[in-house]
Amino acid sequence: MSNSTTGNVENKIFNGIKYPEIDNLPLKFEIIAKHGKARASLLTLPHHQCNTPMFMPVGTQGTVKGLTSQQLVDLNCGVVLGNTYHLGHRPGPDVMDQVGGLHQFMNYPRAMLTDSGGFQMVSLLQLAEITEQGVQFQSPHDGSTMILTPELSMQIQNSIGADIMMALDDVVSSTTTGPRVEEAMYRTLRWIDRCIHAHKKPETQNIFCIVQGGLDARLRDICMDGLIQRNFPGYAIGGLSGGESKDMFWRVVHQCTSKLPENKPRYLMGVGYALDLVVCTALGVDMFDCVFPSRTARFGTALVPSGSLNLKSADYRYDFTPIDSECTCMVCKNYTRAYLHIVAGKEAIGGQLITYHNIQYQMSLMSQLREAIIQNQFPQYVNNFIKKQYPKKDCPQWAIDALNAVNIQINYDL
Amino acid sequence: MTEVDQLEFTITNEIDQIRSGKLSIVNNKIEKKSILTPTCLLYTKEGNPINLTKDLLEGLSNNKPLGLHLSFSDIYQFSNVLEKFGKGSHKFLSLENQVLFCMIRDANGFAETLETSDQHMMVNTRKGKTKVTVEEYQKISNQYIQPDVLSQFSVDIAWNVSRKKAIKLVTQNSSWLKSQIKLTPSQYHSKLFAVIQGSKYKDQRMLSLKEAVAHQQSIGGFILGSFGSGESPKEREDLLSELLPQLPKTKPRLITGIGSPEEVLSLVELGIDIFSNNYPNLMTEWGNALTFKFKFNSNNNNNNNNTQNEVESIINKINLWDSKYVIDKSPLVSDCKCFTCTQHTKAYIHHLLNTHEMLAEVLLTIHNTYHYLSFFEEIRNAIISNQFKSYKDTFLTQRLKE
Q: Which Gene Ontology cellular component terms are annotated (chain A) (predicted)?
């Protein structure tokens, strides 16, 4: 490792790669208020200035299920996710190049983020073989053998052109234990330099790295050391939300947010349940993504401050109130639970309407969390949230423990 | 008690049998909303225009009212919900701004009918068939559904049924009409459309027509029943050209199940005002975008120098599954003002179809519906400017044979 300074930016060289790649990164992160570890910030990306903490809806194949790009803007979404694995297959990087990238392709004017394709290693592991070179797997579409290398992941993500790209990591399921976790963590570190080296558009696209190391605090620490030295514009916490106990989950998040640099955005991958969003915001996470709100919508479940409503249930047959009487979204202004009960889980329109509301729910939860941090009301907000979600005082212990760890006490009697 | 809405029809221009008009919903002499004819009705499922959330629907028509076809059997399944709700289907379905036609015949093609008796017909529901009597039909429709237009209690049968069956239905149909008028409070009469049955048998059609016309003081319009049920366009036109001149001009005429642009133009010429069909949605289901040319002026001066673009645009429809659109960054129709065409490309829609994403249908529905509605707008303009016949002629010369 060698250090040199250009202007105010300290450059570091790892394996022949200069970090950061360029002096003027296409990202600015400005914390505007804090409460304990929780932060409210402005994240400025090439296509949009985003308010954090934020939830990023998942548009796997270049669309958030059933919603138009205009509706995403109407819902005031900031970053929308695309999946490199899926978009790499269809329409593929050549098409992406020719149509001018994903922003143009789906005509979404705001910011986007692409994952690395690495997560599919976990979900397709029975088909995949991981070597130092990359991940070899059979295409589920045509059965051909493909190898996803850090270079190829970068190439596809460069074609997609999202504001934030994720480095290819060696993902292991969060329930895996033993030497495989350590191997994956070290490989993630080795692959990072290859990702940076292969990145062709550092002026317009940022690379976030991903902290791996399973549930092992020592490995997480080593991984973070390696990543922090390289000075990334943002850091993701990966390898969670895969079936581990919530007690382990929050401790890993807490450990990571305690060590990751204060002045960089932190992204917790694959997390989107309301309680997790609230707790992890308290722990200092800025960005979240999850398919849950849109997926559950297609099965007829709507998200509300008291939890969720299964609109398919006969309970709502004659319920002429909106999903959430305090929600101001297009769906809540116009449709009743009784009508949604008729179409929920059956007609496409049911999925469209409930997805719309659920995205609105996520957006407004995040903006309320942000407002509470700015107004110095964060602990009160968290308390109110938990009282609404758990009126029977049965908030899971892990959440209470996690909040205690950042000095937020849950008191049902206040 | 607030007054019941009344339906009014005014003719704005007519040449021979061809007419343009306005169908208005009037309350206490104040017009609440109206749609211009000739027009088409949007198809709905469970009361919702397919794939269109409220924001998309209103954007599609620039907040102007549209006519929507509600299928009685769809709504019947939650009529007890509407009963409790008590404020009618406009409010329940969040379609206050729209003109709702409650119809028995499904606009999505023709299904051979179910048994009937003098007292009832069978209605297909999710849970199977249910008997519905005229009394129930009248009550559910007027009290719970509260549509702007209500079809007479009637069932459509195939073109080629036996004479015996046709006669039986015509007799039944007449007695149903009488019962329904009797059962319907007079303030609801303007919304009631009588149905003319009789299949291919002209004498039976005439009988049915005379019966309906005899009650014209108690009805708001006419439905030409049992078309699109196996007849050829020629058979249909021959029969309709006999029937339509016998109808009072002052009332609107509706036909179900006919939708291709050629057929629409022929029937407009014969005097049809309202078309209820599933044509744009069928196009969407097949991954097609309507691209046919319907602008009157452009039809006139299109003889010389066809550019590549113009050759493309006189194709009636394009199929977005076709891999030739994989990197096509142009809109479905280059000068189309719809949301889909101003916002999205063929390449994107091709990708959405290819990946089985719901948004493909949403975007195609918006374009196809908009395109089809614009076609009707052009028909109305041609009628108002006394040029319908030349419009029809140029349209048909221009149009490629399907």
A: cytosol
Of A108 and A89, more confident:
A108
Whether B331 and B342 have beta carbons less than 8 Å apart is answered as: yes
Q: Which amino acid is at A29?
A: F
Question: Helix B202-214 crosses helix B163-183 at what angle (to 10 degrees)?
Answer: 10
Where residue B401 falls (left for φ over 0; alpha for ψ -120 to 50; beta otherwise) is beta
Q: Where are chain B's structural domains? A: 6-277, 284-299+311-400
Domains of chain A: 28-289 (3.20.20.105), 296-375 (no CATH)
pLDDT reading at B313 higher than 60: no
- Judged by DSSP in three states, A336 sits in coil
Choose the catalytic residue: A163, A170, A286, A289.
A289
A289 is catalytic: yes
Residue B68 CA, chain-centre distance (Å), reads 7
Residue B200 CB-density burial (10 A; 0-12 exposed, 13-18 middle, 19+ buried): buried
This prediction has a pTM of 0.96
Give the ipTM of the model, two decimals please.
0.95
Contact status, residue B368 vs residue B290, Cβ threshold 8 Å: yes
For A32-85, the pLDDT digits (tens) are 999 999 999 999 999 999 999 999 999 999 999 999 999 999 999 999 999 999
Query: Which of B278, B298, B173 lies closest to B223, judged by CA?
Result: B173
Residues 359-388 of B with CB under 8 A from A: 359, 361-363
Select the residue of B56, B355, B361 nearest A348 (Cβ to Cβ): B361
Q: Between the CA of residue B177 and those of A142, B97, B122, B132, B183, what are the distances in Å?
A: 60, 29, 17, 15, 10
List strand residue ranges (DSSP E) for B305-364, in order.
317-319
Which CATH number applies to B6-277?
3.20.20.105
A380 in a labelled binding site: no
